[in-house]
Amino acid sequence: MTERPALGTAHRRGGAAWLVALAIPVAACHPSREQDRAVSFVRLGQIALTQHACGSCHRISGIQGADGRVGPPLVDYARRRMIAGVLPNTPVNLARYLKAPRTVVPGNMMPQEALGDREIQGIVAYLGRH
Amino acid sequence: MRPPLRPIVAGWFLGVMTCGVVALLVAALFLSGIAFRVGADQPHSKLLAWAIHRTMLSSVRRHARREVPRLPLDRATLLAGAALYEQRCIACHGGPGIARAYWVSAMLPTPPYLVDASARWSHAELYALIHDGVKMTGMPAWGEISSDREIAQIVALIEAMPMMTPDQFAQLRRAAAARRR
To answer: If both were cysteines, with which of A53, A96, B127, B143 could B68 make a disulfide (CB 3.0 to 4.6 Å apart)?
Structure first.
């Protein structure tokens, strides 16, 4: 058995500096996601709308590929008066609708995706701005 | 009289070498993981997302075969299609009124709902998408493990989806499940 030579501290510091140098550009190019409290609700909503595939049924401005024609377009939603024709359009009601669309309109095609509370707040914030 | 050849050749050679070295450096940046992070917890940049999607669209359009089987949208076909869809697709793609499995939103790209798919893709394109799958997305090449008839049954179900109410879809699922028992 041969003994492995211990890494000198200078070596280790060099390695750490390298790692930091690598991590900085990587972190800078990739704004962080969901759990990160530093991400704005609007950005969180934008990601949630993408990752929950809302665009396969709805037209939504600012979401890539969101050109679905199954449900109503969600553009300029802040000015909408009623949600699905049955609930006044307030942030609280919209959150309630997104949580369980079929309890609001039974037999509705809109599926009940598993949305977290922060995601729902994010979607409400996003739709309020776009 | 003749233009001096040697400096032109030398310049050309130097130019090619410079391009080569730059290309190697860029490749090294990617291969070493510095220029690209594969983690799926961050969305692609807008430009990359657009380029990937554009490539996928064009490739499917180009490689869709002209002659693919088409089955009538009758009850037997839809039942067979629903049974296959239930086993193989619903977790990732959901259905009319049916949500996808909860973990699917963590996929990048995330699988879309297919109620609108027949408006986006022709019959032949849908057949090709399902038969051949999509590289680097998680969409399997179902043709590897299915007969042409099975693929055609699944395509028929997807094409019938926008003509069904969610309740009719639920009934079809129940009938397909009962038949399997």
So the answer is: B127
Does residue B86 sit in the same domain as residue B18? Answer: no
Tokens of A88: 């006044």
Question: Based on the domain organization, do B85 and B130 belong to the same domain?
Answer: yes
Closest Cα partner for A111 from B104, B121, B138, B156?
B104
Closest CA relative to residue B160, chosen from B70, B73, B68, B71: B73
Probe site for chain A from B55, B104, B105 (most A CB atoms < 10 A): B105
Residues B26 and B78 in one domain: no
Residue of A23, A16, A56, A37 lying closest to B39 (CA atoms) = A23
For chain B, what is the domain count?
Answer: 2
Residue-averaged pLDDT of chain B: 95
Please tell me the predicted confidence (pLDDT) of residue A17: 52
Residues B78, B141, single domain; the answer is yes
Residues of B whose CB is below 8 A from A31: 42
pLDDT digits (tens, 9 = 90+) for B27-81: 999 999 999 999 998 899 999 999 999 999 999 999 999 899 999 999 999 999 9
| Domain coverage including residue B124 | 71-180
A70 vs B113: CB contact, 8 Å cut-off?
yes
C-alpha span between B126 and B71 (Å, rounded): 13
pLDDT at B42: 87
Query: Do B99 and A22 count as a contact with CB atoms less than 8 A apart?
Result: no
